[in-house]
Amino acid sequence: MKKIRRTKLVYEGQYVAEVDVELIDMNKGWSPYLSLDDAYKLDDIRNALRLGDVKSAAQLARIFTLTPIAV
Questions:
Q1: Strand, helix or coil at 15?
Q2: What is the C-alpha separation between 26 and 23, in angstroms, rounded?
Q3: Alpha carbon 36 to chain centroid distance?
Q4: Is the Cβ–Cβ distance between 35 and 24 less than 8 Å?
Q5: 1-13 pLDDT, tens per residue?
Q6: Is 25 inside any structural domain?
Q7: Which helix (H) or strand (E) holds 10?
Q8: What is the DSSP string of 18-35?
Q9: CB 25 within 8 A of CB 32
């Protein structure tokens, strides 16, 4: 079993959260996959951003604002 550190992006509305997670690679089946804790963390961040609670989301991830560009 190998653990690989990756950064996942969570998009919600005008925000993007950059989240560090650990992928588990067992060289069989559906691997690599997230741990249950990391999956819940991604869900918690997405829900917080959906509700506009940037402060809570920022405790678990780095939060950025998306700004549209007119071309």
A1: strand
A2: 10
A3: 13
A4: yes
A5: 889 999 999 999 9
A6: yes
A7: strand 2-12
A8: EEEEEEEE-SSTT-SEE-
A9: yes
pTM attached to this predicted model: 0.85
In angstroms, the Cα distances linking 9 to 15, 26, 45, 64 are 10, 23, 11, 10
Residue 71 forms part of a structural domain? no
- Give me the domain span that covers residue 41: 2-65
Residue 66 sits at the vertex; the CA angle it makes with 10 and 14, to the nearest 5 degrees, is: 65
Q: What pLDDT digit, counting tens, does each position of 8-32 carry?
A: 999 999 999 999 999 998 888 787 8
Place of tokens 């997405």: 46
